[in-house]
Amino acid sequence: MAVIADFAFQGAQMLLVLLLAPLLTGFVRKVKARLMRRQGPSLLQPYRDLIRLLRKDVVLADNASWLFRAIPYLIFAATWVAASLVPTFRSGLMFSWTADLIAIIALLGSARFFLALAGMDVGTAFGGIGSSREVMIASLAEPAMLMIVFAIALIAGSTQLSTMAAFMNSPEVGLRVSLGLGLIALVIVAIAENARIPVDNPATHLELTMVHEAMVLEYSGRHLALIELSAMLKLLLYVSLIACLFAPWGIGGADANAGLLLLGVGAYAAKLAAGGFLLAVFETSIAKMRVFRVPEFLGAALMLALLATLLRFVSRSF
Amino acid sequence: MVVTALECVLALLVLAPLAIALGASARASIIVYGASLLLTLALAIIALLVLLGHGPAAAVTLPLGLPWLGAHFRIDALSAFFLLVINLGGAAASLFALGYGRHEEEPARILPFYPAYLAGMNIVLLAADAFSFLVAWEVMSLTSWALVIAHHREPENLRAGFVYLLMAGFGTLMLLLTFGLLAGGSGAYDFDTIRAAHPSTGIAALVLILALLGAGSKAGLVPLHAWLPLAHPAAPSHVSALMSGVMTKVAVYGFIRIVFDLVGAPAWWWSMPVLALGAASAVMGVLYALMQRDLKRVLAYSTIENIGIVFVALGLALAFKAHAMEAAAALAFTAALLHVFNHSLFKNLLFCGAGAVLAATGERDLEKLGGLIHRMPQTAFVVLIGATAISALPPLNGFVSEWLTFQAILLSPQLPSWGLKLMVPAVGALLALSAALAAACFVRVFGIAFLGRPRSDAAVAAHETDSNSLAAMYALAALCFVAGILPGLFIDGLAPVTQMVVGHPMPAQGSIEWLSIVPIAESRSSYNGLLVFVFMTVSGVLGAFAIHRLASDKIRRGPAWGCGYPDAGPRTQYSADSFAQPIRRVFGTLIFSARETGEMPPPGSTAPARLTVTLRDPVWDALYAPIAAFVAFAAERLNLLQFLTIRRYLSLVFGALVLLLLVLAIWP
Predict the structure, then answer these.
(1) Total structural domains in chain B?
(2) Nearest Cα residue in chain B from A74
(3) What is the 3-state secondary structure (H, E, C) of B615-641?
(4) Do residue B387 and residue B519 come from a single domain?
(5) Residue range of the domain that includes B70
(6) B415 — alpha (psi -120 to 50), left (phi > 0) or beta?
(7) Which of A255, B65, B115, B644 is most buried, taking the most CB atoms under 10 A from its CB?
(8) Which helix or strand (DSSP H or E) is residue B290 part of?
(9) Which pLDDT tens digit goes with each residue over B590-621?
(10) How many inter-chain contacts (A to B, CB under 8 Å) are there?
């Protein structure tokens, strides 16, 4: 019985992230539009877009290989698994020990590895430019992310997300300098990883300014739908991760009853909305950077995260 | 066991003259590689039996070598593990060579040295006295040198051979001095006696430095790596695979044997030079790799990176061991060994893949490849597995050893020494940086060589490689996969080695539910490669199933989008150099003083615009060039001695004699 309940919760988590991801993206777009005094598309527009893409035929470039067709599924699988392993409304899920935070980051790394390969498969200049810039951004964002994990793991005494969330929810965590530095760095990394302004513009199709869109330029139909859905899942993952680490209030424990779980779902929805709103405000108030300013932006995240880790190494109280 | 192993090694040695006798016939290559395959497999099985505790770890002494010493051989857990790594690599390379050897133009230059090289590496691992160890080390160096210059008509290879010979000589000299110090005045060169004698702190520190120089130069640690990217690509591909994937592991073995086993208890600061050199190698190695255009040279530089990761883990193990944190030391040491094993698998695989590409196209230059996934689909598939594994991506094996190393770093704030507290976070950051850059590097290698459109006629005409080569690559890829999803079993296999070397094994992983790995405690960290793989497969298949039920299944083919510009040639694709440009700009301007100069023709001129990139190797400029300049300067000055008169020679000899006697008289 307990096993069935465990499976059910794990399954519910997987479905929840999958269903909420387009809504979050739609919400961010809506808020951005409202902030620009536009009406903006409906909140459900991303779902409609995905369904419309699914109905369309796939147009493959003449030169596309089997790898090009397999990659959308690989990316989707890796991102979905990673997103399902971050505690959202309930911690201590059945498979939460399958992968700790380092492994979740590496799973996202796998998705990016294959996406960058997809950009180079057809053999146009755009795909290459996107892949090349993507790996440059990742080569700074990934170490920064790992250093953030180190800093937080050294405070929580674990890289296991459930344990980390439980620790951050307990009174012993307090206010710490390294946590503050880690949060700033994590936000910078999340912005870069999700191809948001000021690093990349998710709405642009002007070749020279784009990174992510250049890589997926050759995708169409159901392949594009999967890749878009993966990008939405990734945004949701980062918002959940920040919420789980820095605002773990309301996440139900492994023994939570129905009322607490409902509270957990409500709290999660509120956190997603807050995260999406802040992202939209940030994006409308800043301009996109030149590509070679991005390393400085991410370098700042790396330095902050390294400083946070170093503080943890030299003192227990920071 | 050890006798059987020695018989196998002897058989390998006998193969060498046999190969000379057989000459350059096609049969010779089949006999030599086939026999090497069987013998290395036998040796691998012996090593596995010893490692799993089924065979007695016996020792023998043969009446060879120095008259009062004899030649001591034994297999203990440490040498059994490395024997397994070396012979698995050797078997894969031999199987690959059964097919690849047919493309060889001058087999007679390779066949005699190949089994001797394998035998040399095996004897290094079996040796239990310093004399046999050094002789075998020298056999290994010289046979591999002969293999490096096998294609001696290319001037590049001769230069590689020259630099290799110099550095190999330097490395052996350092090891000779190491063992001289360890043996002390008594001259007892067998390992048991050395282990029983505890050298003074100063001597032990000197031994550490010398061992780091000696074994580090063979392993390719920065800044002793200069020979490696020249020599490894110069050899035929199956030998490159052995040199990069396997011989560097023999060097790691030498370092572990001397520093962890023979010297005795380490001091806490010993870990600092090891960590520093390891971290520097990891980052520099992968940055060099990103700047290269030669496929095999990229792989050679990436070996430097991976050796750096191994040495970082070894440095952590030393630090933990010195502070008597046994569980943490076992974790770090296991991470190092697992990375040794993993790297031998995927580096062998990638070099075999490079060999297959070389045989199919005759090109090693990335800029002249492209689109090979259409013409060599199977090679592309296995190389993709190797590239994913070496980029430390789950669920493959490279990730597991990096994950363990990160877990070991997370234990190091408990180290009491301040030097290490300040150093380890920086090392961790460099390790994370190198992991991210490695992924970038292998996206570039695979994307440029196998994806896109062919950039040369040779790449258009490529064809799939032969079945023996493919079998070897598939076997290695399968091992990468198994080691990635069932890491617990492999960690348990390493327990006897950790027990022997750091005195404490990692907690048994095989009995943990669902075959997870849990280095310390489940609440702290755990990883389950099997479940991650199953999860990914299930969600990928679910997604595919749902989509194919719901969505349009139609596929149309059309031309790629070129902004309305039709028929853009393959040369408009991103090239290897342009792919690396952003990273070169971010990291290269500082480290390699990379400069880009654009040259635009004046308006109206039809001359092409040119972009020139200059890179300088900081290590070569700062270390090797001054030494070479000094040697040249000194040689110039000393040359005068050649033209002295006989009287001056005699007075010189007399003066030297007097000086020597004075020194002896004053010596306490």
Answers:
(1) 3
(2) B540
(3) CCCHHHHHHHHHHHHHHHHHHHHHHHH
(4) yes
(5) 1-169+231-247
(6) beta
(7) B115
(8) helix B271-291
(9) 888 888 888 888 888 888 888 888 888 888 88
(10) 279
